[in-house]
């Protein structure tokens, strides 16, 4: 998975990139169809905001986290992203199951007639 990192009022250093690669390696193994992850880290009014955006199976998924310290903000956003991805994966699995087919009233009446109930 490719991580596209950008900073707004934040210097993006190699240590931040390494931390993000370490944090999101688990997500990459659980969701192998993820191609890229866009990460935006910004600092406004003394508070860090981390926004994560990705495409997963045809849906745009995003999550954000805020904190006074950057690394906990990344952890909060990661947790929200994992929850959103799991929810989407559950939706996709639910669509694969066979839906029950209801019979029309005329067919149901014929079935009851053939049963010869007494």
From TrEMBL:
InterPro entries: HPF/YfiA_ribosome-assoc (IPR050574), RHF-like (IPR036567), RHF/RaiA (IPR003489). One of its GO terms (cellular component) is cytosolic small ribosomal subunit. One of its GO terms (biological process) is negative regulation of translational elongation. One of its GO terms (molecular function) is ribosomal small subunit binding. Keywords: Translation regulation. Belongs to the HPF/YfiA ribosome-associated protein family. Short HPF subfamily. Associates exclusively with 100S ribosomes, which are dimers of 70S ribosomes. This is Ribosome hibernation promoting factor. It comes from Shewanella benthica KT99.
